[in-house]
Each structure stands twice: as C-alpha cells, then as structure tokens.
Amino acid sequence: MDMHSVVVRVGKADVSAEDVLAVARGGARVEIGPDALAEMAAARARIDALAAEPRPVYGVSTGFGALAVRHISPELRAQLQRSLVRSHAAGMGPVVETEVVRALVFLRMKTLASGRTGVRPLVAGTMAALLNAGITPAVREFGSLGCSGDLAPLSHCALALMGEGTAFGPDGVERPAGELLAEAGIAPVELLEKEGLALINGTDGMLGMLLMALADLRRLYTTADVTAAMSLEALLGTDKVLAPELHAPIRPHPGQAAAAANMLAVLRGSGLTGHHQDDAPRVQDAYSIRCAPQVAGAGRDTLAHAALVAERELAASVDNPVVLPDGRVESNGNFHGAPVGYVLDFLAIAAADLASIAERRTDRLLDRARSHGLPAFLADDPGVDSGLMIAQYTQAALVSENKRLAVPASVDSIPSSAMQEDHVSMGWSAARKLRRAVDNLGRVLAVELVAAARALEIREQAAEQPGVLAPATAAAVAAARAAGVGGPGRDRFLSPDLEAAAALVASGALLEAVQEVTGPLA
C-alpha cells in the first residue's frame, strides 16, 4: 500500500501508535475530524474569556517560567507569544531526523485537537497542512531537558508555523520556512494568547521516539531469536532446552516462553542440533546459547511494559495550563517526562544486553577451541585467511558503545529557569541515545547472522548431504546470500557483506524469509 494515500484522522478519540508511525515514517496524510474542531473552538472560547479578565492567568496574560510574575497587557500578548517561540527555538547541533520531527509535529497536533490546550482550530489545521505538504521544520539535537515539554525542539516546529526559521521541503533541501509555506499555499500563523505556550509544552519528541523504538525493537527481538537459533544449530547445540514445559509452566515470564517458542520453530527439522562432537562431549551448552530465551524474554517483557507507558502517554493531553472539561484552566506538572524517560532508559539497558549475548555467540562460532569442529574464525585457510576475525571486532565495538548508551539519562537533572524548573527528566536525551542503541543492536545481530550463516554452510558442506539444516535456517542463509552476503571462501572486502546483512535485518526481509517456513513468529 502507498502510505501517501493513507489518511489518519485525528478526532477526540485517541490516535494509535500505528497512526503515529504511518505519519512519521510513511508520509500518511492527516485530517482533523469535526468533533475535534468543535472541541477546540469551545476551549478557545474559554481562553478568550479569561484573556478579557483583569486577573493574571499563567500562559494567557503572564510571562513564562521564572518570569510568570509579570502581568502582560493585552496589546503585548501577541508579541509575548512570538517572543516565546523565537527565544525558545534555541536548539544546537545536528539536524534531527525527518521521521522524528514529523512525529513531533503530529503528536503536538493530536494534543491540540483534544481541546484541552485552548488553541484555535486554525493552529492545528496549519500543522496538518505542514505535514501534508511534506515540510519538515529544522529541529536541532540539543535543547530539551525533558521537562516543561521538549521546549527547544517544539519551538523550532512552532517557528516554522509562524513562517520563520528554516525547514526542509519535500525535496529534502533546507530553506527559509516562509518560502516553503508560500509555495505550499499555507498562511503563517499569527499566534494569540496561550498558543505559543501550547505549541511547545509537551513530551511529544520523546514519545514519538519511544513509539518508533518499540516498533524497531519488536522486529529486532524476533530477529535475535532467529540468529540465536542459527548459532545454536551451527554449534551443534541441543534444542531440548527450548521445550515448552521448561518455560511457561515453571517460570511464567511470557517473553521467555515466546522467545523459546520462536527458536524451537526456527530449528524444527534440523539434522544438526544435539549432535555433540565425540572429542568434546557436552552435558549442557554455554549460557549464551542455553539462556538465549531467558535474556531475550526479559527484554520482550521490558518492551511490553514500555508499550503500556507509551499507550498511556499517547492518550494524554500534555499542556500547562490545561483547559478542563468543566471550563476551568489549571496549572499542572504533566509536562514532566519522567514516565517516558524511565522506560526509554530501561529499553537501552535491554538493547545493550541483547547485543552483548549475541556477540558472545558470535565469538564462540569463531573460536575453534569452542566451536566444535568449525575452522578458526570460519576462515577458508586459517593463517592465510583471517575470515570473520575483524567482523567480531566491529561487533564488539558496537556492543561496547551500547553499554555506554545504557547509562540512564533520567537519573540526571540540571536546574533551569532561575530554579523555577529545578527538576527535569532528561527524557529527550534518553530517547536520542536509545535511537543509536537500537541502530547498533541491528548491526550486532547482522554480524551474528553473517557468522552463523557461514558456519551453517560449512557444516552443510562437511555433512555432504543436502537438507541437514533446518528448513527455516536454510531460508535465512538463502536470504542472506540473495541480499549480497557472501558465503564461505577466501578473504574478500568484508564491509559490504556486513552492510548488506544490516540492511536485510533492518528491512525485516530476513524475518519474512524465515516466516515463510515457520509461519508467524511472536
């Protein structure tokens, strides 16, 4: 399906994670439903009424943060909102990825459409037009502390709505936002009371990155079950430890049972599993093989918890102050990113550990003292050829970086705004490092795939009989070869093989090939 023909309608009802991914990654079009437009109009009427009152109301007729003590006269309030956005668009560093910015804009628009922020329907409609025109505000890496919202990133988005700053057009070229809006026939927004504040006061950036990480990690955890099964088979391990009666009935962690079932399905029909070498008898396999379901299962359960938090945050309307259904406008602290920041850090820990155990399996495949008959480094002529020796170095470097990225960001806090905002979540930072950790994990699994596929082909050649591999692992090897990952043989330029394997893993094509044999894997 052409995702550009998909339309995501935003109404009073919650949007789904799939909706966010469709807009962020698939370029789906956005519409705002009539129920949401009516809700926004009603809330805006309440803000207009408050703006006309003499008493100060935060965000409507006052300054912001530590400057909230000043009452702003009506003739200065439009300037107040413009100044807020301009001053807060203070990001620095590399440009953030397009999919992240699209998620950021869409999720903020979703909150505006809830009617809890008090902005005019025009503002949300302009955000939808921006998305549909393929205009992506230029958002910088640094600038969010994960509290009071993702302030600088959202401010860069709001600046583009005003026709200021820079943005990327559908062609990916960075240009002045005003030019891009004019070419798309979009009128810049003149912000009124509270609207600038409502545009920048949310956890949308960290939430968008969490939703995308969850989608990627679900694919990678299933991929890890496949590569672990391939390594088990190549090392002549036993699949008896994957029997269902050893998991859910006696240790009822659902992720563990799912991982074991996946591995068992991939290994079904293997002629290699359990064939321990006579010169190296084994009562049990090493932990990296035998405990693969336990480690991957714990990560799967972590994903489930993170998904629950994401679902709750996706149902939230984060702003301060917020317009309540009874018409009251109340200050709150819902912009604090702690719930999201914690699970982002938790996922980085899980990703680091999954990468770590995969690297240990790869190392075992390459070490002739522990590989049970495989040549050193899976080389054609060890000594003359180095085989996959340095591929494991690359994998180890990625694993080491993921361990550093697993250090929690959410335990840190730096006071800001003259001590008014004296405790922050650092959730944006947690999300940024998780994205890198997820990418690294995919590459680690790609190296295990390369090593396990080569080892399986060496076993098949040594067996001198076709069909010794499990049909599913044979399908994985064939998919790798079709993708440009070379098999056993003399040394060659190895980097293209590894990159081809990484692309195969990232695209999901490896899982598709395996599931054509096994049926759906969890």
TrEMBL record:
Pathway the protein takes part in: Amino-acid degradation; L-histidine degradation into L-glutamate; N-formimidoyl-L-glutamate from L-histidine: step 1/3
Source lineage: Bacteria, Bacillati, Actinomycetota, Actinomycetes, Kitasatosporales
Query: Which keywords does UniProt give here?
Result: Histidine metabolism, Lyase
| UniProt enzyme class | lyase
The reaction(s) this protein catalyses: L-histidine = trans-urocanate + NH4(+)
Q: Which Gene3D superfamilies match?
A: Fumarase/aspartase (Central domain), Fumarase/aspartase (N-terminal domain)
**Protein family (similarity comment):** Belongs to the PAL/histidase family.
Pfam families recorded for this chain? Answer: Lyase_aromatic
Q: Mind telling me what this protein is named?
A: Histidine ammonia-lyase
| EC number from the UniProt entry | 4.3.1.3
Alphabetized SUPFAM superfamilies for the sequence: L-aspartase-like (SSF48557)
Organism in which the protein naturally occurs: Kitasatospora saccharophila
**Subcellular location(s) per record:** Cytoplasm
Q: Which InterPro entries match?
A: Aromatic_Lyase, Fumarase/histidase_N, HutH, L-Aspartase-like, Phe/His_NH3-lyase_AS
> PANTHER family from the entry?
HISTIDINE AMMONIA-LYASE
